[in-house]
Amino acid sequence: MWKISKALAVVAVLFLLFHKGSPISQYSLPKIPWVLIFILTLTYGISLIFGSEISAQHRFTVAYLIFTGLTYLLAGVLGLLPSWGLIEAALWYSLLSPYLFISFLDQAVHHFPYTAAKAPYEPVPHSEHHVFSAIVVIISAIAVAAAFGMAKRRKTGYDVWFALLGLLILAWLGYVIVGFISWGLKDTILPLCWLSSYIAAYLVARRGIVYDHAVR
Questions:
Q1: Could you count the other beta carbons within 10 Å of the beta carbon of residue 209?
Q2: How many CB atoms lie within 10 A of CB 148?
Q3: How far apart are CA 121 and CA 31, in angstroms?
Q4: Could you tell me which of 88, 164, 93, 70 has the C-alpha nearest to residue 133?
Q5: Per residue of the chain (216 residues), what is the pLDDT tens digit?
Q6: CA atoms within a 13 Å half-sphere pointing along the CA-CB vector of 4
Q7: How remote is the C-alpha of 147 from its chain's centroid?
Q8: 48-55 contacts at long range (C-beta below 8 A, 24 or more positions apart)
Q9: Per the count of CB atoms within 10 A, which of 83, 158, 190, 213 is most buried?
Q10: Are 190 and 179 within 8 A, CB to CB?
Q11: Secondary structure of 115-147 in the HEC alphabet?
Q12: Buried b (16+ CB within 10 A) or exposed e, 72-82
């Protein structure tokens, strides 16, 4: 009953976040505080899936990684659907996009010696690049499954997320490279914030964990 009450509270906060007359709606709050409340609320809601035998700290950090995986999964799915380009683009511009690094490599390999500073680097995949979106869907689904494995203290889940963090660090380096040669480094700040939050959640979730070796 207590968990149901918490779930209802999460639903109520989500309603207020999108209700125009609410003091915490997107019309009342600046964008950053609104986004933070939204993420924290959804993360807490996901954490309610897990039982009390898992510490609150572990539940919340694993739930945040699940939320992260679901966010990228949504971006990938939108890339496979027709007529969702604007929403997909808005989502990718708000995330740490690995496509920017791919865009830089494409320019370096296929368009050299095109002026690097004027190359059309993009964090959003072109509409015809469905392969990228499909790969994002697959990797994101694996990330979600791995995070659930972390909740059960399975070593495989931690190993998968360790590898995913390596890919995300590589993706952020794409922002740094493009920032130096074209955009400016101010565009590396938001992706760095996301990357830092993923790493922090992973490290906190891993702290003090004794792996369950029964199922890897």
A1: 13
A2: 16
A3: 26
A4: 88
A5: 677 888 889 999 999 998 888 888 888 888 889 999 999 999 999 999 998 888 889 999 999 999 999 999 999 999 888 877 788 888 998 999 999 888 888 777 766 555 555 566 778 887 667 889 999 999 999 999 999 999 988 999 999 999 999 999 999 999 998 888 777 788 889 999 999 999 999 999 988 665 554 444
A6: 1
A7: 13
A8: 48/3, 48/6, 48/7, 48/10, 50/151, 54/151
A9: 158
A10: no
A11: CHHHCCCCCCCCCCCHHHHHHHHHHHHHHHHHH
A12: bbbbbbbbeee
pTM: 0.89
**Token pair for residue 91?**
């989502």
User: Between helices 56-80 and 31-47, what is the axis angle to 10°?
Assistant: 110
Structure tokens at 135: 């790969």
